[in-house]
Amino acid sequence: MQLNHETGGGKASRAIGKAVAALLGGQLCLGSAAASEGAPRNRIEFAGLYYKESARVQVSEPTLRWTRSFSGDRSFSLRLGFDAMSGASPSGALPTLQAETYTSPSGKSFRAGAGELPKRTFYDERVSAGLEYTQPWASGLSGNSGVNVSSEADYLSLGISQSLAWEFNRKMTTLTLGASHNRDTVEPRGGLGEPLSDMETGTVEEGGSKSKSISDLLFGVTQILDRRTLLQVNLGLGFDSGFMTEPYKGVSVFDDAGSLVGLLRESRPDSRRRTTLLTRLNRHLGRDVFSGSLRWYHDDWGVDSWTLDLRYHFKPDLDQVWQPHLRYSRQTAADFQRFALREGEPLPEHVSSDMRLADLNSLTLGMKYSRPVLNGRLSLRLEYLLQSAPVPDGQVPEPLRGMDLNPDLKALLFGLGYTIDF
Amino acid sequence: MEEQGRLEATDSGWRFSFTCFGGPCEVTLDHAPRRLAQELGEEARCEALRIQSKFSRYAPSSELSRINRGAGKACEVDAETAGLLDLADTAHHLSEGAFDISAGVLGQLWDFRRSGEQVEGSEERRRSLLARVGWSRVDWRRPRLNLPARMELDLGGLGKEYAVDRCLALLATNHRGALLVNFGGDLAVHGTREGDQPWRVAVEEVDAGQPERMLHLREGALATSGDNRRFVYWHGKRVAHILDARTGLPPDKAPRSVTVAAPTCCEAGLLATLALLRGAAAGTFLEEQGRPHWIRNADE
């Protein structure tokens, strides 16, 4: 039986053969890539996040992203976000043996009972927006340009970014090169105080503001190892300069009897070099996907961290996805991180009691579920976060030792997302 | 939870079976490791279900439903849909309008499932339904489609054959051995079997109870139009359910089924359908096309 196009011969056979070749031809060797060829032209993504710490900050964070795709692999996306943050944030001061009242220069005060972590209550709103544009520059080479802005009552951040992705080796290998720059300005409420000055009595500059710049470079390689395995390695280099001190955070000063004698504003170096190395492996197992990544971070403030992130996409059928998630990280403290100072000791040039710069262990356990709803896809996410940075005994006077001076942070995070293509 | 696929050993490899396009589907692989057979079978199943759901007339979230809901205004379609519309357009012209993907509504005139007879009062309905049919009134300029209001498209006559060709191509890139993709009797093969043995495939006979007809196939594809589940009675004779879009009626002296061999399943399926639409001239038409074919004529 001969079935060649030539021997078919009939008019209908030839015409149909040609249309079939056009239909199948462009897709035969592309495999699953053909599915994305039919990508819709508009996508709306909504994400809402609700975050509740045991007794601290709660954040609700709706964001909306609209992506419009054009022919020739060009796309444009607009992101709008609104964060409402309210609750109580650690002031940087440690709990004390007696109840204390802390007053800021603006006259606002807060009170913490004996053994209670002093916190500053606050309410902040942040509005953010971003624009991105992706287009091919040459065969296999595509560029992505972006601008973003975010604004709070006391904070403004402006940023630009540019990245290039080069696909070669029959699309098995992708090299990524990216650069971004952010310029942030803070104008603290209640005025800008001098680092290391007394938080309650020190003078402040009304309406004073400070800036910092954050620059990042990214080098990435993504390699398809076989038809089920993808390996990604990213190297990130960052350089920050300017005012990085947190204007609302202080460090407690205790005397040897464990009584609080003062609260000093924290002080951080005005430059920081950061290095990040991320390795990620994605492996398809039948319909399921396993994704694991290991991230190493180092900066010249002395912070080193390792983060392990494991996810499994379990697809019981074509519609539903269950995704368990485990994340664990360990971090060493910055050289100048101190939970407290002792009265009479020479003042260090830099000091911060920020838990995020301390010896910190962090664990996240979560589950995400998604399924089609109406014409789109709904996802629900629940995560539990545990962060632990106990205060070393050597950092506080004898009477305070043994107290749980920095209780573990326990948070629940609930996320809701909806994506629709049209 | 939906039914999953099933893998079983054959004399020379593996067979993966699942249900899609309203019937049994299977992928047979010679000389494949069990795990690869399972993976490729799953891949074929996912691809078949993807095509089925993308071009379903009934699922509100399908691409085809999106197009049909947009009737009355212009919309853009993706490359895959455009390729299928181009193919349907070609078949429409070749059949001088008898083949028409906007003719799905005419199915309402016939009771396919049970008696196969025309439904009551169908003569007036036929005229009113024909007003909603006509690919020539659709403004199709790739990638823009302007479907007149109240019209709807049905790609049911192409989807299964297209899925067979797609799955064969997908699997052939990852499997060196011989391969058969058979979705409810529409099938395609790839690669040479050991000793150049042909694939022996059964073509369902129009009458249940009769022995299946076995065909031998070494390359290309086979597709059948007309079968024993969907038929209509026309002038007292049981004929294939294919309707001429210009009249809403079965072609005169249509055979009960036509099986065609061609390089691709899409071509085989369309040639079989176009042949049925030629009625008594089905055989002559297929002779002209130079494609091997098997025709089963209507009851005497």
Throw out a few tags for this protein.
heterodimer; A: 422 residues; mainly beta; Porin; 17-stranded antiparallel beta sheet; three-stranded mixed beta sheet; 24 strands; 6% helix; B: 300 residues; alpha+beta; T-fold; 15 strands
Written description of the protein model:
The complex is a heterodimer of chains A (422) and B (300). Chain A is mostly beta strands and 422 residues long. Chain A has three helices and 24 strands. Chain A has helices at residues 5-8, 11-25, 33-37, and strands at residues 42-53, 58-60, 63-70, 74-90, 100-103, 109-112, 119-138, 141-152, 155-168, 173-186, 192-193, 204-205, 210-226, 229-242, 250-254, 260-265, 271-285, 288-299, 304-313, 321-331, 340-342, 360-373, 376-388, 409-421. In chain A, the strands form four sheets. Chain A has a 17-stranded antiparallel beta sheet that branches. Chain A has a three-stranded mixed beta sheet with strand order 16-15-21, with no helix packed on it. The mean pLDDT of chain B is 86. Chain B has helices at 34-54, 63-69, 79-94, 122-130, 156-172, 265-277, 282-289, and strands spanning 6-9, 13-20, 23-30, 74-76, 139-141, 144-146, 179-183, 186-190, 199-203, 213-217, 220-225, 231-234, 237-240, 257-262, 293-296. With 300 residues, chain B is an alpha+beta fold. Chain B is built from seven helices and 15 strands. At the A-B interface, helix 1, helix 2 and helix 3 of A face helix 1, helix 3, helix 5, helix 6 and helix 7 of B.
